[in-house]
Amino acid sequence: MDNKIICRCEDLTEEEIRQEIRQGARTLDELKRLTRTGMGPCQGKTCRPMIMRILAEETGVRLEDMVTPTVRQPLVPITLGDLAHEEN
Ligand code: FES
Asked: Fewest CB atoms within 10 Å of the CB: 1, 28, 54, 61?
């Protein structure tokens, strides 16, 4: 069993990721829903490339042919002043 941590934010090992793929996960979005990978504070910036490499190895799909994850807008609208860190 490979206990190498792949997603530090969600504390997921390579073996846990591979098991989800072997049980049917075929996209990054599916892995995200099943394991929360990419949903931590870094939003997948650290783990996404490694997850995609593992997904490519397990499924045989080339990296350039993979479906990219869905990007959603923030749930709560914010003002431009909040974005600029200005006082109202
Ligand atoms: S390392 Fe995976 S979400 Fe941050």
From this structure: 1
Record the tokens describing residue 59, joined without a space: 């499924």
pLDDT for 25 equals: 95
**Is the whole model's pTM more than 0.85, yes or no?**
no
Q: Dig out the tokens for 62 from the structure.
A: 């080339």
**Cβ(10) to ligand 1 under 6 A?**
yes
Mean pLDDT of 30-46: 92
In the prediction, which pLDDT does 86 show?
A: 64
Half-sphere exposure of 34 (CA within 13 A, CB side): 17
Question: With pLDDT > 90 as the criterion, what percentage of the chain qualifies?
Answer: 62
For residue 39, the CA-to-ligand 1 centroid distance in Å is 6
**CA–CA gap between residue 67 and residue 77 (Å, rounded):** 28
